[in-house]
Amino acid sequence: MSPRLPRFGRSRRDDADGPAAPVPVDVPIRDEVIRLGQFLKLANLIDTGAEAKVVLAEGLVQVNGEPEARRGRQLRRGDVVELNGQAARVADEASADDLPW
Fold first, then answer.
1. pLDDT over threshold 80, residue 54
2. Could you give the CA distance from residue 21 to residue 80 in angstroms, rounded to a whole number?
3. pLDDT (tens digit, 9 = 90+) per residue, 62-77?
4. Which has the minimum average pLDDT: 4-8, 30-34, 44-48, 79-83?
C-alpha cells in the first residue's frame, strides 16, 4: 500500500531557492493529547492504521520538523505533523475543521 499523495498543492515558499513548506491546517482534538497514528487518520492524511505503520516506517512523517517513526507518539496542541506535502496542526476542539483534503 503506498502513502496517499497530496490532493492540493497548498504550500508556501520561505525562500525562492529553498523547498516549499506546507501550510498547516488546524485539526481539533477533544482531549489534551492524541497519538500520532490516530491523528494521521483524524487529519485524513492516511486512510488506515496499517497505512500509518507504512508511512512511519518509511520515514515520511515529520512532527515539528523532525522525522518521527513512533505511531504512539503523544501529540499536544500546537504540534505540527507533515506528510507528503501536507501539514496538520493539533488544535483546540473549538477550532473549525477546515481541512482542504
1. yes
2. 12
3. 999 999 999 999 999 9
4. 4-8
Of 39, 58, 47, the residue nearest 4 (C-alpha): 47
Tell me the three cell numbers of residue 52.
500509518
Sign of the alpha-carbon torsion through 7, 1, 51, 69: negative
Q: Please, is 96 exposed, middle or buried when counting C-beta atoms within 10 Å of its C-beta (0-12, 13-18, 19+)?
A: exposed
Q: Cα–Cα distance between 61 and 70 in angstroms, integer?
A: 10
Query: Is residue 72 within 8 Å of 36, Cβ to Cβ?
Result: yes
pTM: 0.74
Phi then psi for residue 97, to 5 deg, are -85, 100
